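Continuing from the previous page of notes. For each protein in this section, the sequence appears first, followed by its structure tokens. Read the first protein now.
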Amino acid sequence: MSSRKIVVIGGGAAGAMAAGHAAAEGVEVILIEKMPRIGRKIAISGKGRCNLTNAGDIRDFIKYYPSNGKFLYSSLSQFTNTDVVNFFKRYDVETKVERGGRVFPTKDNSEVIVKALENFLKDNGVKVFLQTPASNVLVDDKKQVHGVQIKSGDIIQSDAVIVATGGASYPGTGSTGDGYDIARELGHHVVTPLPALVPLKTQEQWPKELQGLTLKNVEASLWINDKKQAREFGEMLFTHFGISGPIILTLSRYAAQALSKKQKVAIKINLKPALSFEQLNLRLQRDFQKYINKLFRNSLDDLLPKSIIPTIIKLSGINPDKVVNEFTKEERKKLVSLLQDLPLNIIGTLGLATAIVTSGGVDVKEVNPTTMESRLIKGLFWAGEVLDVDGVTGGYNLQAAFATGYKAGKAAAQYVLAK
């Protein structure tokens, strides 16, 4: 065992991966975690099932990180999705692939992932100190790391420090933005942390009436200051406060950024994106012909989920008791427009407390992407969500955490061994 020492701050996905791989190089590693157990956020990810990576082509991963994806190029090529799966397989965790390439443990339980990481740390002799929050990273006059001070006031001397404290989302798991304070104190720029992958609040109250309704194969488009900025196809959910579900979560990071700038934000839902305006108009004509003597409120059962029909009728402004054969061409076109352009004004997000990840963080321009080392402080390394990198849903965020953790751990070990 080398007399050289590394301290890792944070025992999440990135921190555990960094600590174990650094120790595997023969360096003494101490991991400090402020919670009573490592991996608290992993334990709740994927609704407790843990979507640990994605089975897609690793060469395509970069595009799934809206913020600074290119920064991850080196990390993802060094520790791929296949490497993640094989790593956990060594700890008897079998995996399966679900819709959208999402990779889960076959046991559908995140506990097996946390346990595997605990065993990985143990196997490599990492000393884990729980309920030990860091206060600050100590740096000498030469801008070189020499230790970590913990909240008790004690100092742990070290030759390198890896900060893997996570973002500011799900603070109950320990991710309370501590790493941002450390970064600022050391002179790093922190891009304003905002919620990403977060449900959205709507000005309209009608989504509340549809609470629990999931829509599949719909398209949601994001409009900022009346300009279309992005769109997503897939599944969404109505809630008591507004909207959620995979496609809404993906759009939410842009919505949160726009809202923080006081910009006007709207989501428009296309309930029938597979059909053009004319095709849907013809479809409605056929349905109306079929139900020619029925009332409007009883004529949409073939086209829409039953629970959304009263809302659509109300929003259309057309008399629900109007007989279908009395519809004018203009009324039918008005209905088609509504079905393909259902507007919702977004007034907020549910905030960092419920966000799956954080956008923003330590500015990656100040971090070397091939080593994860700070460009400002020697021996200071960064990994995981504390960095200004975030991905869409589907396992991409944990993949980034594992890959940057691996990279930081290996590079930090090489750094201290070369001293």
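Done with the first. The second protein uses the same format. Note its length before scrolling.
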Amino acid sequence: RLGFAERMTSDTGSRLVRLIILNRLPPTLLLFVSAQLLLFIASVLMALSLSRRYGSALDQAVVALAPTSAAPAWFYGIFLILIFSALLRALPFGGMVDAPPPERAFAYALSVLRHMILPMAALFLTTIFLAVYSWRTFFLIFSSEDYVEVAKAKGLTSGAIERRYILRPTMPTIITSFALSLIGAWTGAIVLETVFNWPGLGRALFQAIGLYDTPVIVGATIIYAYLLAITVFVLDILYALIDPRVKVGIEERG
């Protein structure tokens, strides 16, 4: 049990820390898990494409833009708000849904998606170029191995070679990088959600710090620790599925 909050309340007016966290956790999971999955798929596909076009203008551009990943997501978020919200008036400044919220479920979902564009773009920009550069380098290293040359000599298609001999050995490293980026996203949720006024767990923690609401601070910190542990646990399971060298629950007998 996490006890009762001193000043904050849930959407229903309850002071139970458990209910406050349960109100705020789904928006955080929706935003960050969606952004990281999109980033994972896009970066792998882009890295594969660049590994086939090594030395091209696009490849050199990605290499040049890789250092931009040093800036945090909230830094890009401020500029995105200035450009697309303040200047162009194309997207909302923040929040999760229009006020008042749409009554129909489909319109409500579209409103949420529209509000997710800028924070997801900020998370995307802070990671995409470095991820593409790193994974493209791994693909290039494995594509120069002798067994890849043998596969080419046998007449295998480029798609089959990439799936069997390039993606498979690099997938554990890619999954690890993805998990680490997800962990980094959890730690950056406080500032990013505050910048975009996203009603998630990070903003709740920021509000609790400002209100000196110790029970909520402790509860949110515990939940973040659980998210970290769950991420590592899922990573171990994925290792067992994608890496044939890892066997779970099987011991070698001499």
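What the second structure shows: The chain is about 70% helix and 0% strand. The two ends are 48 Å apart (CA to CA). We return to this in next week's lecture.
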